[in-house]
Amino acid sequence: MKKKNPSDSTITLVVASLVAIGVIMVFSSSFAYALVNMNDGYFFLKRVSMWAVIGSISMYICAKIPYRQWSKFANLILLISIGLLITVLTPIGTEINGASRWIVIGGISIMPSEIAKFAVIIFIPISIHRKKETIRTFSKGVMPYLLIIAVFFILIYEQPDLSTAFVVAVVIMSMLFVGGMRMLHFVTLAGIGLTSIGAMVTYLLMSGDGHIARRITSFLDPWADPLGSGFQAIQSLLALGAGGLFGRGLGRSVQKQFYLPEPQNDFIFAIIGEELGFIGCVTILLLFVLLIWRGIRIAINAPDLVGCLMATGIVTMITVQVIINVAVATSSMPVTGMALPFISFGGNSLVIFMALIGILLNISKYLTSEGG
After folding, report:
1. Among residues 15, 164, 198, 292, which is most buried (max CB within 10 A)?
2. Pairwise CA distance, residues 46 & 317, whole Å
C-alpha cells in the first residue's frame, strides 16, 4: 500500500489550535484554584504544558506508524486495557471524590478508562476486518462484540463513570454499524439500549432517594435546588450568560473564583463562554466541526475497512464527548463528568486523543484519489 498524499495538514492545524486554546484556558480558569489549593498559581499550567508536549510526541509517533501495523498489538492492548480496568477497582486503585478511576505510579496518574478508548479503536476495526464474512450474522458476528461492550461497560461503570462507559459503547456500536452489521440488528440493539437506559432512569427516579432524583432532573430546573444538585449547572449558566457576545476578557472570569468547582475540568466550556463570549464558544465549536468533517472525509475515502473503521471510531469519540460536555455546560442534560477533547485539563485524555489524531493523520496518507 503506497502513500499517495501528505498527512492532512488541516487536522494538524485544528488540533494544534485546540490544544493551544486548551493550555491558555486551563491556566486562566485554574490560577485562583491552584494558588489557594496548591500554593502555586502555575501548577495546572505546568502540568498541562508537560502533557501537551507528551501528547504532541505521541501524535507524531502514531502518525509515523502505518495504521495496519497496529494489528500486531491489538490483542495485547485490549488485554492490558481490561487488566487495568480490573486493577483500578482493587485497593491498588486511587479513590478521589468517591470515584476509583486512577492508578498512581511514581506520582503519575494512569486513567484506565482513557486507555480503554484507545484499545477499542485499535482492536475492533482489526477484529471486524478479520471476520468480515460473519459480521452480518448475530451469533458469530455481533454477539462477541456485545460481550466486549458488556465487559467494558460494567468495569467502567463500577468506577463509577457512566458517561465514559456510554461513550465506549457508542464508539463500538458505530464501528459495528459502519463495518457491515445488519440494520435490523443495529436498530434492535439501539432500541434495547435506549429502553434499558430509560428503565434505569425511571427506577432511580422512583427509588425514593430524593437526592438521586434531583441529580437526574436538576438540569430541567437547576434553581429548584440551587445549593445542591443544581449548583454546578447554575454557576455554569451564570458564566455563559455573563460572557455575552464578546466575553469579559481573558482572565476576567468571576465564576472561576471558587463558584464553579474545578473550572479547568468538565466545565471549562462555561469559563470560555464567560471570558471569550459567544464568539469564543462558536469559534471552538467550528474548530471541532472542521475536525469532525475532515475525519469523516478520511473515513469515507480510506483505502480499506480497517482505516475506515479506525477513523469512524475516532470521529465518533470526539463528536460524542463534545456533545456531552457542551450539553452539560449549557444544562441541556444532567451533570456528568466528561472532558472537552484537547481543552479540558487531564493528561491521560490529552495524550490519548492526540495519539488517536496521529493514527487519523496516518490513515489520511493513504486516501483514495476521491479523497485526495
Report:
1. 164
2. 27
Report angle CA 53, 59, 61 to the nearest 5 degrees: 105
Half-sphere exposure of 89 (CA within 13 A, CB side): 14
Q: Most distant CA pair in the chain: distance in Å?
A: 62
Residue of 10, 5, 2, 3 whose CA lies nearest to 357: 10
Q: For the segment 227-251, what is each residue's pLDDT rounded down to a tens digit? A: 777 888 899 999 999 999 999 999 9
Q: How many domains, in total, are found in the chain?
A: 1
- What is the domain extent for residue 168? 9-364
Task: Extract the C-alpha cell encoding 112.
Answer: 484506565
Residues in the chain: 372
> Would you say 194 and 344 are in contact if contact means Cβ atoms under 8 Å apart?
no
Instruction: Give the predicted TM-score (pTM) of the model.
Output: 0.94
φ, ψ (nearest 5 deg) of residue 106? 60, 35
Q: What is the pLDDT of residues 293-346, one digit of tens each?
A: 999 999 999 999 999 999 999 999 999 999 999 999 998 888 888 999 999 998
Whether 342 contacts 357, CB under 8 Å: no
Under 8 Å between Cβ of 112 and 77: no
If we measure between CA atoms, which residue out of 47, 44, 45, 53 comes closest to residue 16? 53
